[in-house]
Amino acid sequence: MSTPHVKRSVRLPADLARRLAEDARTRRASQTAVIEAALESWLSPDAADRLEGALARRLDRTARTLERLEWNVELGNEALAQFVRFWLITNAPLPDSAMKAAQAMGKERWQRFVETLARRMEQGPRLRSELRDDGDSREPA
Predict the structure, then answer these.
(1) CA separation (Å) from 24 to 9, 13, 17, 109?
(2) For residue 3, which of 40, 28, 47 has the smallest C-alpha distance?
(3) What is the reported pTM?
(4) Residue 128, exposed/middle/buried by CB under 10 A (0-12, 13-18, 19+)?
(5) Per residue in 97-127, pLDDT tens?
(6) Contact, 36 vs 29, CB < 8 A?
């Protein structure tokens, strides 16, 4: 014997009604069956636990992503600081007479740097993979 049903009329936004119809068609089920399953899931006592678990997993994944991002930003900052420190220590200021030639050479070197950087960003390898290959990386997994 089947459970008696109570008829309810609900108004759905057009987009939601369309998605309901598509989902029912895809599952080869009636729209009533899809709505019943959704309500059972929503009203079940463990629904809150499942939602909490899903949110906890997503937050954990986001936290790990942020840790990697933080590590990469720190790496970039430290690399830049070390480069600037080294450059300032090893390069004396140029006399005014050599400035134009140095600027022309600097523009040429800058263009090669930008081209190399663009190629490396598109094709690799990335610094991160080189650090990992060295085996001394402290990047979070």
Answers:
(1) 18, 16, 11, 62
(2) 40
(3) 0.48
(4) middle
(5) 999 999 999 999 999 999 998 998 899 888 7
(6) no
The confidence band for 1, taking pLDDT boundaries of 50, 70 and 90, is low
In angstroms, rounded to a whole number, what is the distance separating the alpha carbons of residues 106 and 125?
Answer: 25
**Other CB atoms within 10 A of residue 121 CB:** 9
Contact 12, 20 (CB under 8 A): yes
pLDDT one-digit tens code per residue, 6-31: 888 889 999 999 999 999 999 999 99
Please state, in angstroms and rounded to a whole number, the distance separating the CA atoms of residues 135 and 124: 19
